[in-house]
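pinned: reference chain
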Amino acid sequence: MRRVLQEHSSGSDSSVPFSCVGSTEAARYLASLNLIVLEGEEVTPLAGPFAECGPFDMSDYPDARQATGPFLQHIKLALQKNSVTMGRGGFKVLDLHAQGSNYELHLGGKTLRGGLDGAVVPFGV
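pinned: its structure tokens
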């Protein structure tokens, strides 16, 4: 962690979007937090069976911003199809794309900022 912080201590605070951080820098930062990224790795599946929900085709939309709402609706329908209760006493799906950069990680003199496209949260949140 000390080495990662030293590499990013420049004396002036610079702000960088999550999406602009290089993979080497991101991997080094995650490793310093003892986090492991699994991408394409086989993980133990959840106990099923689960109803098939089908893929979401991003090519129907010009960009991620316009696809966010329909994608979250797809996720919500998939959860409901698999007996997840939505509404009071259950969960809700939030579209957070428009919220902007609401998360910051401070790394020495650099601030990494970004946001989320959506979330599934308990209904009362």
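why pinned: Residues 51 and 81 are 6 Å apart (CA to CA). Confidence is low (pLDDT under 50) at residues 1-12.
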